[in-house]
Amino acid sequence: MGLTVILAEKPSQAKAYADAFQVAKKTKHYIEIAPNQTFPDGATITWGIGHLVELKQPADYKPEWKRWSLAQLPMIPDNYEFRVAKGKWDQFQEVKRLFKEAHVLINACDVDREGSNIFYSIYRQTGVRQKPVQRLWINSLEVDEIRKGFANLRNNDKDLLLYHEAQARQISDWLVGMNASRLYTMLLKAKGLNETMSIGRVQSPTVYMIYQRQQEIEHFKPTNFYELTAEFLAEKGPYKGKAAIKKDKREEVEQILHQASITEGEILPGVIRDVKKARKHVKPPKLHALSTLQAKANKIWKYSPAKVLDVVQGLYEKKLVSYPRSDCQYITEAEFSYLADRLADYQKIVDKPFEIATARPQKRYVDNAQVEEHYAIIPTKTIPTAGKVQGLSPMERNIYFEIVKSALAMFHRDHVYKETTIMTNVKAIDFKTVGKVELDPGFKTLWSGSEPTKKKDEEPLLPPVNENEVVESKVAIHEGTTQPPKPYSEGQLVQMMKTCGKLVDDESASDILKEVEGLGTEATRSGIIETIKRHGYIEVTKNIVSITDKGRVLCQTIEGSLLSSPTMTAKWETYLRKIGNGTGSKEAFIQNVCKFLNHLIEVTPKMVEKTDIQAAAENSASNEPLGLCPICKKGQLLSRKSFYGCSNYKAGCKFTVSKTVAGKKLSPKQVSDLCQYGVTKEMKGFKSKKGSIFSAKLKLVEGKIVFEF
């Protein structure tokens, strides 16, 4: 058979593969495994370090492309060339040597299109040709799964198509990123904004989605509404109800009461017209894909999506959970079988014993037809010792337990409760009351004590009542205020990126986005959020995502273009899938992207011309001291991440000014005025706790900032 060379994506993955066999030799560049049943002549495992090979930079093609200039756009190379990534030359040279000596090559990178791209980019860069290539396709790094995978290797037909798909995506993202980033940066610089604007097919519409939500919040005008509520006293206890009446004016509700001869606050007889009792069942939740795990971990523990991916990747490399970058919430009967065999062990891990309700696979969780490349994220067959569990970090333990519990929930009982609906009539006005009584917590016991409970969401306990029972009633007019939409949390942002098809008016584009699951992939969404944070387009404070002034400028300049809409991703992904299925052409796709760039270069100057850059321009220069500290009179006020603070803080000066006051972002000029003169000019756009917008000056009084109306 000759030498078999296996390429893993990274060293940890290579080590996991080697653990499944007897190791003959280890070096810092490869691992040799001894002859065995699967590899009679042995094999050598080497690895990338992520992307060993990357697309060249513009200056590598033409020296004049090094300088950022509008005259050089669009930069479209005749041929797209690759280079060894910086700092990875030694590893590449070893991989190249091994590839040349190999009789058979095995692509054992991650099982997705980027894994195919990593392998073939390295393979092409080595200059090696005409070697037989096979594909390892597994979802777990457990010893049994690795051995089974290597014993049942796939051919590389699909792998090659995925590589062409991935490379088309990679080149097109390079074209858009390199050209559009320079285009917007140079145009805005000419207008006075000294910032680098990073533009991307996925990152830009993501920023725009956050901008749209912020616009909805800022332009929201709260209005009052009026409802009828009532307090009742039955023979066996009190309860409350609400009429199906909601009006914009109090007089309208008062008129309804007047017509019914009801005086607000008066004790009147009421009659229980109807009592309905229904037994309700809630099924255990579906198994986790990466995005649902990220959303839940963010909601409960405020972990960022990027951190969750890092943690679950680590658990995968420790062989405790299945492949983390999964977008699937189903498993096959094979996975269900091993989970069922180890139920007692998993229950012991999370210390949640329960009687098994069903040991049969249910379509809600187990469906072979729904599993394509990966199945849901579940615990592996490896049962960790108590010591290993204790050795996990608190974050690892939380995530691991969540994955185990979601798998155990499949075998648990439904959550069952009794819902009682009472209709009480007071002088021809019906009041509805709904209450719940839990009959069986079921699967919810798995999470009891580990999740915060929201008492305000719980339905009230109701007294036992009967139809036609007469009750005492006291009717009141309740005044409420409409609330603005809430800003996104990081976890919600991941879900919004996934479901953005709902925001697209074009029906066909919306359908495609639902099919490809929105912006980015399970593997890339958290990275995209980190990228737009790093570029200064958004800020995350206490898990709440908000747009920055720089982000606003970006969104105003891309408004109305494909760069602001998920539709571009829909169109791209449709054609990329065709390339992956062998029915599309990489060349045709890239040609269309070049046409888009030419159009963008033509129309963008007009959009930039009408964009207001003042706030962003002020903030881009805010690294300069804003003036003398008004408290200690010694230090300078400097810009920090979320506040302005005195440079003399080490000597004890604690004076700070938050960058956001009552929902309004303060500019460096406003803070400078506050410190210099003790008061600002009147400013619009402050928001009260009730959501109403107001104007005020900010005044410095004894080191504290107060409103002056």
Write the layout of secondary structure elements.
Blueprint: E1 4-8, H1 11-19, E2 23-26, E3 30-33, E4 43-47, E5 53-55, H2 58-61, E6 82-84, H3 89-101, E7 104-108, H4 113-126, E8 133-135, H5 143-151, E9 154-155, H6 157-191, H7 203-218, E10 224-234, E11 237-247, H8 250-259, E12 267-282, H9 290-301, H10 305-317, H11 333-341, H12 343-350, H13 386-391, H14 394-409, E13 415-426, E14 429-440, E15 470-481, H15 490-498, H16 507-516, H17 525-534, E16 538-541, E17 544-547, H18 549-558, H19 567-581, H20 586-609, H21 614-620, E18 637-639, E19 643-646, E20 656-658, E21 660-661, E22 664-665, H22 668-677, E23 683-687, E24 693-701, E25 704-708
Parallel strand pairs: 1-4, 1-7, 7-8
Antiparallel strand pairs: 2-3, 3-4, 5-6, 8-9, 10-11, 10-15, 11-14, 12-13, 12-15, 13-14, 16-17, 18-19, 19-20, 21-22, 23-24, 24-25
Protein name: DNA topoisomerase
Catalytic activity: ATP-independent breakage of single-stranded DNA, followed by passage and rejoining
GO cellular component, one term: cytoplasmic replication fork
